[in-house]
Specification:
Blueprint lengths: L1 H21 L1 H13 L2 H23 L1
Helix pairs in contact: 1-2
Length: 62
C-alpha cells in the first residue's frame, strides 16, 4: 500500500510537470487566469478535483 502512494505521487509530479515543460507560455496563462479567480471559484475547482479523484480511486480500487 505505501508503494502505491509513492507511485501515485510520482505520477502526479510527472503529470503536473508536463504542461510547463511542453508549453511554458500556456502554463503562465493558466496561472494568470487562476490569479483572476475569486477564492470561491478556486475552492470549487479544488473540491471538484478532489471529488473526481476520489470517485476515480473508488472505482479503480476494486
Amino acid at each position: 500500500m505505501p508503494d502505491a502512494v509513492w507511485l501515485a505521487l510520482a505520477l502526479m509530479l510527472v503529470i503536473e510537470g508536463f504542461l510547463p515543460f511542453v508549453s511554458p507560455a500556456a502554463w503562465r496563462q493558466v496561472f494568470e487566469r487562476l490569479l483572476a479567480m475569486s477564492d470561491g471559484q478556486i475552492r470549487f475547482v479544488g473540491l471538484s478535483s478532489m471529488l473526481a479523484g476520489g470517485l476515480g480511486l473508488l472505482f479503480l480500487w476494486r
